[in-house]
Amino acid sequence: MKTAKKKPPKKTVKKPVKKTKLKALIRKKPSISSKKSSLSSQVDDIFEVWNRNDSPGMAIAVRHNGTVVHRRGYGRADFDHQIDNSHDTVFHAASLTKQFTAMAIMMLINDPSLGNPAITPITLNTNVNTGTNPLIPELAGITQPITIGQLLHHTSGIRDQWVLATMAGWRLSDDVVTRDDVMNRFVGLSTSLNFPPGSKYSYSNTNYTIAGEIVKKVSGLSLSAFCKQHIFDPLGMTKTQIIETHGTIVDDRAYGYRVPTPPLGWEIRMPNYDLSGPTNLQTTVDDLMRWDANFDTMTVGGAAALTEMQTPGLGGYGLGLFISQQGSIKVVEHNGRDAGYRSHLIRVPNQNLSIALLCNVALPNVRTPAAQTWTLVRDVAALYLGATLLPLPPQAPLPGATPGPTPSNPDEFTGQFHSDELDVTYTLSLNGTAVQVTREKYATVTLSPLIDADTFKTMPPPMPAFSNVLPKVKFTFYREQGQIAGFFMDDISGQDQLSNFKFRKMP
Fold first, then answer.
1. Closest alpha carbon to 272 in 199, 191, 172
2. C-alpha closest to that of 173 among 257, 54, 88
3. What angle do CA 415, 420, 424 make, to 5 degrees?
4. Stretch (H or E) spanning 152
5. Rounded distance, CA 254 to CA 256, Å?
6. What string of DSSP letters covers 275-339?
C-alpha cells in the first residue's frame, strides 16, 4: 500500500499595503512603432542640452488628462559615482516645501483632532504673537497682531530670513543657518516690520519657518513627522521627506551643482539649512505627480483645504502657491531656488495639465531662453496646450533712485552703525569722496549719492551687489540735532523685501 504524498501547504501571500500607485497614473505603453510619441520627443528636445554625461541636469514628469504621459531624467545626478538622473532620483526641492507646510496647517485647522487637545484649535485668523499665551512667543517684540493667514499669504510684514542672514554676515550655502538662528535672532530680536500686517504682499521665507513651528506646537509632531504621517504616506510618496538638518542622509539623492567658472569644472553646492517650513523638501518627480493627483482626488486634506490653497490673495499668492489668470486659463504653480538646485511644479487645472521639474544645477536667475524653470515648464506646457503661458510679470523697481551730486561733506556719513534687530555693526568709510560700506564676510560696497538729501544707493554692476538676495539697496540717513544719527535701509530691487530697517550711529 502506497503512502499518499502530502501536498505542500499553500504559501500565504501577504497583500501589499494599499497606497496611491504611480502606475495608475501612467498610460499604457504604445505600440512599438510609436514607442516614442511626437510630444515626448519634443520634450526631450527642450532638455537636450542637459542630456549628457558631463553635466548635471534635471528630471521632468508631465501629467495630462489624468495620466502621466512623460517622465525622464537628463544629465548626471552624481559625478563621483557616474549616476544619471532619472524620474526616480531624489532632488532638494527648495520652496516647493511651502505648499506642504500650508497643507499641514490647513489639516490642523479643518481637523482639530490632529492637534494637541491642550492647544486651542487654530484658524487662519488666529493671532500668533498676541494674548497671554501666544503661539510664537519669539515675536513678542512685534506689537501689531499677526495672523496665521497673513503668514501663509506673505502679508505679515515680517522680513525674509535670507535677507536678514546676508545682512548679518552669513553666506548662504557656505554658513549653516539653523532654526534657532531664525527664531531666536532674526525673529526674536525683531521690533519692526516692513509694513503693517495685511496691508501688502512681500515674499518672506521667515513666514513659513514660523508656520512650521506652529505645526510642531499644535500637533506635537515636527513638520517632517507630521507630513510623513498625514500627507506623504497616505499618498504613497515613499521617496519624499522634509529633512530637519542639512546633514541628513537621503537615499538616491542627486548632488546639487553650480555652473562652472573657467577653468574650473562643476562645483558641488548643497543647501546648509537646519530648519524646515520654507525649504528642505526632498522628493522625486514621480512623487510630485502623486501629490499633484491629490488636487483632483482630494484624498488628503479635502476640498476645503485645497480650495483655500488655490485662492489668491495679495500679489496673486494663495497658500504656498502662486495663482495667475491668463484669459480663461488658470495657472497654479511654485518654483524653488536653493544652492545647486532649482524646482518647479505647475498646474493648469482647466486644461488637465501638470508639469514637475526638478534640477540639480543652479540655473541663472535671469529670464533668458532655457535658463529658468519658469521658461522651461512653459516651453513644455506649450507643446500640450498649443498656447504659450506667460510668466509672472516682474516687479518694477521702486522710485527714488535718481543720481545726485557728491555731498559737500561726505565724511559726516562715516563711522560705526549698529542694528539692534540684527545685533550687527557696519563700518562706513570713505574711498576718496565715495562712501563705502564694510560688513563681515562680504565685499565692500560703494554707495552712490541720490538727488534726495542724505540718501544713497548701492552701485550697479559690475560693482559688487549688496548680496545675492538683496542686490539693490537705498540708504537714507537721518539726523538728530543736525548731526547724522543713523540710517534706514530699503530694498529698491522691486521685491519689497526690506523697508525702513534701522541702524543707529555709535558714539
1. 172
2. 257
3. 55
4. helix 148-152
5. 6
6. --SSS-EEE-HHHHHHHHHHHHH--SSHHHHHHHHTS--GGGB-SS-EEEEETTEEEEEEEEEET
CB-CB contact of 112 with 123 (8 Å): no
Counting as low any pLDDT under 70, the low residues of the chain are 1-36, 260, 262-263, 364-371, 391-401
pLDDT score at 11 = 43
The answer to whether 354 and 347 have CB atoms below 8 angstroms apart is yes
Nearest Cα to Cα of residue 153 among 186, 199, 108, 110: 199
* H, E, C per residue of 437-448: EECCCCCCEEEE
Instruction: Give yes or no for a contact between 400 and 455, defined as CB atoms under 8 angstroms apart.
Output: yes
The three state secondary structure string of 188-232 is CCCCCCCCCCCCCCCCCHHHHHHHHHHHHHHHCCCHHHHHHHHHH
User: What does the alpha-carbon distance between residue 163 and residue 281 come to, in Å, rounded to a whole number?
Assistant: 21
State the cell numbers at 269. 553646492
Q: What are the tens digits of pLDDT across the range 220-274?
A: 999 999 999 999 999 999 999 999 999 999 999 999 998 867 667 899 999 999 9
Quote the cell numbers at residue 246: 542639512
Question: Is beta strand 273-274 parallel, antiparallel or unpaired with respect to 177-178?
Answer: parallel
Q: Reduce the DSSP state of residue 58 to 3 states and report it.
A: strand
pLDDT of residue 411: 96
Strand ranges of the sheet holding 67-74, from the earlier edge strand across to the other edge: 67-74, 58-64, 353-359, 341-348, 329-338, 322-326
Identify whether the C-beta of residue 272 lies closer than 8 Å to the C-beta of residue 246. yes
Residues 458 and 448 sit within 8 Å (Cβ to Cβ): yes
Q: CB-based burial of residue 108 (10 Å sphere; 0-12 exposed, 13-18 middle, 19+ buried)?
A: buried
Under 8 Å between Cβ of 401 and 474: yes
Are the CB atoms for 465 and 430 separated by under 8 Å?
no
DSSP helix/strand/coil, 162: helix
Domains of the chain: 92-385 (3.40.710.10), 410-505 (2.40.128.50)
Cα radius of gyration (the chain): 26
Please tell me the predicted confidence (pLDDT) of residue 401.
Answer: 63
pTM over 0.70: yes
d(C-alpha 337, C-alpha 435), whole Å: 33
Asked whether 227 and 99 are in contact (CB, 8 A), the reply is no
Q: How far apart are CA 115 and CA 265, in angstroms?
A: 49
Which residue from 206, 230, 393, 421 is spatially nearest to 315, judged by alpha carbons? 393
